[in-house]
Design goal:
Shape: globular
Helix content: over 70%
Strand content: under 5%
Distance between the termini: 37 Å
Radius of gyration: 19 Å
Order of helices and strands: HHHHHHHHHHHH
Number of strands: 0
């Protein structure tokens, strides 16, 4: 019997997952979670670069809606192949709660996005791990090991080395608006961590796309203008990048404590600096290089410390 297109895609996907598991099976769960989180961070940096250009051409709320609409369209073939029953959530209310909270953070983020350089918005987003660490300890009762606090504190110090001079310039209001989105996103990620106890990563990503698309639609219609062909193509790329990045992040939350993966988020500053140099010929400043070195050192140190712990258990 011949294999159809859907079955062939599933076979390739299974082969890729098998290859990844074989390559990382010897690693402790926390280290695998750090790898998933680092991959997600790189994809988010690529996504932010494309979205910033689109948000300067279209209304930010329309940009937000189309980004998640195309994220949903990218996921529909997976839902069709797996069947609707496989993607129906066990906690529908939790999925829409997470979507509503994430939408609030996105509104703040997209409003500030056209007015800030890519490096600024990336660096300000690094405050989110601090709120996640606090929330994970207070609400999820995760063990707050001293290594996680130290790595996050050192990483945040590296961020301050980079962005300190930037925050004292003009446009401070947009910086504060971007900063306000950080605790909201932290709450969204904490809800995601709770959902991973009963839901698969695929279900969470699909229902985030559904809920955010629905919540964003009314705001997008208010200021709608027809996108060009190039803009439609840009949103298609955003859909692929965003859905894949959220899947990586959700996988990291499933494997290990959410607090154990936050220090690796600071690597996004390294990704952003590298992309700026490769794509726009923006040479990183001395403070960027120094801050990046501090961030990388903190990330590698906590990964090594976590790898020595034999008590981690994969969920």
């Amino acid at each position: 019997m011949s294999t159809g297109p859907g079955q062939g895609g599933a076979t390739r996907a299974s082969g890729l997952r098998g290859w990844w598991r074989a390559r990382t099976a010897h690693l402790p769960p926390t280290v695998r979670a750090l790898l998933w989180s680092a991959a997600g961070g790189l994809l988010f940096c690529l996504l932010n670069a494309v979205l910033r250009g689109l948000s300067q051409q279209l209304d930010p709320m329309q940009t937000q809606f189309l980004r998640y609409l195309f994220g949903l369209l990218v996921l529909l073939p997976l839902v069709w192949h797996g069947g609707l029953a496989a993607y129906w959530p066990k906690n529908l209310a939790g999925q829409f709660t997470r979507g509503a909270v994430h939408t609030v953070g996105l509104v703040l983020w997209f409003l500030a996005l056209p007015h800030l350089p890519l490096a600024d918005l990336t660096a300000i987003g690094f405050t989110t791990p601090l709120f996640i660490l606090i929330g994970a300890g207070l609400f999820l009762r995760e063990p707050m090991r001293w290594e996680r606090w130290v790595a996050t504190g050192i990483g945040f110090a590296g961020v301050l080395i980079v962005v300190g001079p930037l925050l004292s310039g003009s446009g401070g209001g947009w910086h504060l608006l971007m900063l306000a989105s950080a605790p909201v996103f932290a709450a969204s990620f904490l809800i995601t961590k709770v959902l991973t106890r009963t839901e698969t990563s695929g279900v969470i990503v699909v229902w985030q796309a559904i809920s955010v698309t629905l919540f964003s639609l009314p705001m997008a219609l208010w200021a709608w203008q027809p996108p060009t062909a190039a803009q439609w193509a840009g949103f298609a790329v955003c859909g692929l990048l965003g859905s894949t990045a959220h899947y990586c992040l959700t996988r990291s939350f499933r494997i290990a404590d959410i607090s154990s993966t936050q220090s690796v988020k600071f690597l996004e500053l390294v990704w952003a600096s590298a992309l700026g140099w490769l794509l726009f010929a923006d040479l990183p400043t001395q403070t960027t290089l120094l801050g990046g070195a501090v961030i990388v050192a903190a990330t590698l140190w906590v990964a090594r410390r976590e790898r020595r712990r034999p008590t981690d258990v994969e969920i």
